[in-house]
Design brief:
Layout: H1 28-39, H2 50-61, E1 63-64, E2 67-68, H3 73-101, H4 107-132, H5 134-137, H6 143-151, H7 160-172
Antiparallel strand pairs: 1-2
Helix pairs in contact: 2-3, 2-4, 3-4, 4-6, 4-7
């Protein structure tokens, strides 16, 4: 599954000059976690515009019982629900980015944005495939590939479970308060 192949790197007897080190010796894990934490919320926001666009385009041209499927309430509601979820994800993402840009602690906000965004993207992708019916599952359209690629967003840069643990831990330890995602 996915759009890429796993890479394997092996190094033996490699020395890195001090001038080429990132950060302090032994601090690589902290640097990596900081980078991941600041960027994880961006991942699911990448597909936010394209996914419902595919559903809208197809719903207008696909006919069932003599009408475009866009005329049917079930399809309309799937499109509407997708748009609402996408808009909420945009605001969560913008807030997390703003906190990060301001130099504020954005870890809680990024975990919320990443969890919500990854789950949302998968739900929207599932609706897009459903609207396309059997054709969405076939390789003739990009839906099948998108479906595989979107699924991994719930795994990398911190799984759903890790995000939930982080959010709950912040609340339970008082690092964040209910009703305020940024404190």
């Amino acid at each position: 599954m996915g759009d890429w192949e796993a890479a394997s790197l092996s190094f033996e007897d490699v020395r890195v000059p001090d001038r080429n080190l990132l950060g302090e010796p032994g601090g690589g894990m902290e640097l990596a976690l900081n980078w991941i934490g600041q960027k994880r919320y961006v991942i699911p926001s990448r597909a936010a515009e394209r996914l419902p666009g595919m559903a809208v385009e197809y719903a207008k041209i696909r006919k069932s019982m003599g009408h475009p499927i866009a005329d049917y309430q079930a399809i309309q509601w799937q499109i509407a629900d997708s748009q609402v979820e996408i808009e909420s994800t945009k605001w969560l993402t913008l807030y997390a980015a703003w906190r990060s840009q301001q130099g504020l602690d954005a870890r809680h906000a990024t975990s919320i944005a990443k969890l919500h965004g990854a789950v949302m993207a998968n739900e929207v992708m599932d609706r897009v495939l459903q609207i396309h019916g059997g054709l969405g599952y076939a390789k003739e359209l990009p839906i099948e590939r998108w479906y595989r690629n979107v699924r991994v967003w719930r795994i990398f840069e911190g799984t759903d479970e890790i995000q939930r643990r982080t959010i709950a831990r912040n609340l339970l330890k008082g690092h964040a308060t209910l009703g305020s995602i940024g404190e």
